[in-house]
């Protein structure tokens, strides 16, 4: 509470205020859990962390990483994804494990080995041991226009029916005010770290995964140290994993149609459209122009580009 009183504060999109800590915005509940995570978590060399900015493909990447990493630890037709949601199988540090407990029993949380966790925390704020150890990080980002619409839809539909106009959400996003934002600082933090250390951080994009899930799954398996064998490729294991983790399949599973995540979010809230380019149904020409300029300005010189649509080669590249 003492710390919070000293931090810059802004009204959140809906619900609680956001506080600016170590360069990013958090509601107090997440901030408290994040600080416990930052201070107490000890990474193992073998740990894998799925890291994302919210609404950029967390649920999907959790399912893909879980199924790829542990594929030889359960019979294929008993994939735990059929009975547990991706967020129950790959648990968030700050949104789950450390939410109500500064010292969660992490050994009993992980049924399979190596340990697999997830986080929305920025690269710069990760606990030191995650950087100093051999622990690996898989990050996924998404074009900011789809992320913005996904986040806005999530906030207005999932959060108690309160209303937030797209204009208001857009204005806050433009100024970096969004839980775990600024978006560009988050993405660029992981992007730069992955450029410097590609064996430690695998940087993926939602749009690329949509376009060709198979080849990215192969890279993911290689990165995780569990490459697909020739036999597995012949048996269609890659296609099977892509299919079980697909939006269409996960959305229709009973387990994802009922109940709620420990954070309070109903499981259905993690599955909406799962498309690239849905932003074009919502953003005004003015918003699009502003966002295009923002993307160019923020990514300038970084080498990072975003694909905005699945239909055109409408790429916003950095200079
Ligand atoms: P989180 O960060 O809050 O956990 P996250 O899973 O990143 O959420 O984002 C949800 C988005 O991923 C939704 O996008 P949309 O609003 O544009 O539809 C959701 O539909 C999409 N999504 C969930 N599962 C999948 C999947 N298996 N394949 C592709 N997209 C998915």
From TrEMBL:
- Which keywords does this Swiss-Prot/TrEMBL entry list? Transferase
The Sulfotransferase domain is annotated at: 46-303
The molecular function GO annotations come to:
sulfotransferase activity
Sorted alphabetically, the Gene Ontology cellular component annotations on this record are: cytoplasm
Q: Which Gene3D superfamilies has this protein been placed in?
A: P-loop containing nucleotide triphosphate hydrolases
Matches recorded under InterPro entries:
P-loop_NTPase (IPR027417), Sulfotransferase_dom (IPR000863)
Question: Which PANTHER family does this one have?
Answer: SULFOTRANSFERASE SULT
Record protein name field? Sulfotransferase
Taxonomic source organism: Gossypium hirsutum
Gene name linked to the record? LOC107937021
């Amino acid at each position: 509470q003492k710390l919070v009183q000293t931090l810059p504060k802004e009204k959140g999109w809906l619900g609680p205020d956001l506080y600016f800590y170590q360069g990013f915005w958090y509601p107090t509940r997440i901030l408290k859990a994040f600080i416990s995570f930052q201070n107490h978590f000890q990474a193992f060399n073998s740990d894998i962390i799925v890291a994302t900015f919210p609404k950029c493909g967390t649920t999907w990447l959790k399912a893909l990483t879980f199924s790829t990493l542990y594929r030889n630890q359960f019979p294929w037709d008993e994939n735990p994804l059929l009975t547990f949601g991706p967020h129950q199988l790959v648990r968030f540090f700050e949104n789950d494990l450390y939410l109500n407990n500064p010292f969660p029993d992490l050994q009993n949380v992980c049924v399979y080995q190596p340990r697999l966790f997830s986080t929305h925390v920025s690269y710069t704020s990760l606990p030191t041991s995650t950087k100093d150890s051999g622990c690996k990080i898989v990050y996924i980002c998404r074009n900011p226009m789809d992320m913005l619409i996904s986040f806005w839809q999530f906030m207005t539909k999932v959060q108690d029916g309160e209303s937030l106009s797209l204009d208001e959400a857009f204005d806050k996003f433009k100024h970096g005010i969004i839980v775990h934002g600024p978006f560009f600082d988050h993405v660029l933090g992981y992007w730069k770290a992955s450029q410097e250390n590609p064996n430690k951080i695998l940087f993926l994009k939602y749009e690329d995964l949509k376009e060709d899930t198979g080849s990215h799954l192969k890279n993911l398996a290689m990165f995780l140290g569990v490459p697909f064998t020739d036999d597995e490729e012949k048996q269609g294991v890659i296609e099977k994993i892509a299919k079980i983790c697909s939006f269409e399949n996960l959305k229709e599973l009973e387990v994802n149609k009922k109940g709620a995540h420990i954070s309070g979010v109903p499981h259905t809230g993690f599955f909406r459209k799962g498309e690239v380019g849905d932003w074009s149904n919502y953003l005004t020409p003015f918003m699009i122009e502003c966002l295009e300029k923002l993307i160019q300005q923020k990514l300038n010189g970084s080498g990072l580009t975003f694909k905005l649509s699945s239909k055109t080669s409408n790429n916003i590249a950095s200079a």
